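Hi R.,

Here's the chain you asked about this morning:
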Amino acid sequence: MNILLISSLSKGYEKLILINLIKQNLIFFYKDQNLKFDLIKNESFVSENIFFKKSDFNKIKMSFGLKDLWNKRTDPYDLIINLDTSFRSVLYSQFISKKKRIGIDKKDLRKYANLSATDFEIVLAENILTKILKDINGLMIKPELNIDKTKLINTEKLINWTLESNGQKQLDFLEYIFVYLDVSEELFFLDNIMNLLKRIMMNREGNKLILIINGSSEYDDLTSKIKNLFSEVSEQILNLDFISFDDFYYLLKFSEKSILTITNDSYLDKVNRVEDKICLFLKKKKLNDASVEHIIEQLKYYLRTVINPQ
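And the predicted structure, written out as tokens:
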């Protein structure tokens, strides 16, 4: 079965979970058939990442112009799934093939607009799959994550070596909260970050805190300032050994082993949600008292009600 996916991917990682979910579930439900997927994308496109692997697609095409439509009618697609709502994408899907076509309704986009980015894509995937399969009985195969397992294993070994070298336990024997803040484009100032960290430490319920911060050149001295300000804090409370380790595999491993993650990085938040890990997401670009208070209230709830219920 030849399947064409049409999607606009200009906004970073938008719709990559949606594409991944649709592809993996169709492969599962049509396991006895040889499925081939083509993808039409717009010009602005993300590179390979944890949700997207180019080799999963037979062909990846740029959005073609109207003059090319006639030639595209010869493509033998058994199913066209349009994940865009633009006039051009609708025209493409209608003109290319007279066979089965599935699309997203604008009313669904409005209906689910208040959901988180991840939940939004999951609900849309369920909606699309129900149209194709009629009855999926609530069964959804999780997205297939494009992870180098060997690199992930080696990353854990490096983390454990660093911890043991400093007289600390390995990750598997630690109970900790992982905090990752990307301040490269956000309005996160030192005082705000210090306030957030102090509030987390006050409400950590005895758990360790591991911190990583990623920043642009203007934040070059931010990590050293944080280290100086927290120099008197015991390593059993706050670990700053990895504060500059912003390699994504370190983030993955720390999130995986933590009791929960606190971050303002939407990509890491999506990975945690897909993996059913607790992640407290700082949605606001500006880290102020209100956003800090919101995160702390969530932290208290999860630590006292979900993780360590009394």
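The mean pLDDT is 82.

Let me know if you need anything else.
M.
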